[in-house]
Amino acid sequence: MFGTIGHARLKPGRQGQLDALMDDWRQTVRPRIPGAFLNLIGHTDDHPDALVFVALAQDKATYRALAEMPEQDAWYRRFTEHVEGEVRWKDVEMDSVPT
Q1: Where does 2-88 sit in CATH, by number?
Q2: pLDDT tens digits for 16-38?
Q3: Pick from 20, 22, 18, 56: nearest CA to 39
């Protein structure tokens, strides 16, 4: 799987809006992504406003196609309204390990 791990700081009082925005993504953008996709969002244990998110597509080509979708770009621009400063990204290739 290929994707990104991101870090951002949520603006105060925006958790409900972020939850609604994530629901919107699952309904409007996710159905357009072929194949397996893993999307996780949470926060560090000691700072509830310190967001950590993981987005992994089935392969690099699928992830790159998602990044180029106008719907994803529009969604991301709305997302940035709820965080302080720049989102820090790190693209990753992950191997799945059977459990």
Answers
A1: 3.30.70.100
A2: 999 999 999 999 999 999 999 99
A3: 56
